[in-house]
Amino acid sequence: MTGLNAADMDWLAALLLDVGTAEIMPRFRNLDEGAVQQKTSATDLVTEADVNAERVITAALLERYPDSLVIGEEAVADNPALLKGWVSSGKRAFIVDPIDGTFNFASGVASFGVMLAVVEAGETVAGIIHDPVGQDWIMAQKGSGAILRRLDGRESALRVAEPTGSIHQMIGSASWQYMPEPERSMIARNQALCIGSVAYRCAAQEYRLLVGGHIHFTLYNKLMPWDHLAGTLITEEAGGYVRRFDGSVYKPEHLDGGLLATTDLDSWNVVREALWRS
Asked: What is the structure's pLDDT at 31?
């Protein structure tokens, strides 16, 4: 049982909605010249919407939960030292990605999301992914299942797809671009074994596909907490199975080792064997 209650989850969901409405959507397809900047590469971008959204989220979280930590993607970009020691601090931490899928957002493509995870005592205990375009949420608390919540308040349970037993009957999303060789070429090539593949350049929307039962796996090499803590918890609460590439449990402090999320353990083994086939 976490220290968060239903009122906390409602408040957090409303915060993401408000920020999406006030800071993100007015700038979608409406960014001024100079409002987009590169960070580490031409595909790693930050916009004024990212910065403003994170600023508002951080301020609101610290006002309501003053003894907590807030670890935001853009704050860490400015001060990487923020990633050191936050898990062992013992404090509740809110992990924020103000816009996941910034490349899409900056390109005018409606595939992005706002992600928030809550970590207590070194464990992810809650996750919310908000879609500012559709104005809904996928969300979960540890031990309570995963739900899709619509703007009108209707909720429905989320559940991963039924296992297929065969890589040839799976649809998956494999983000190979951050992988070293020879894995990079091997994974890219072996995706052709699947019946289909998707690449949204947005973990928020790829996790949504997985927990909604529309695809069978997601695979990532780059592990930043704001990209995966919310989505992996929601996946597990929707009945899925998540491990690093070596089979170990993914924890909030992990920044490497890759991540494979599937519908179940048997499917994890099938994907792990098939995509790494030389």
From this structure: 87
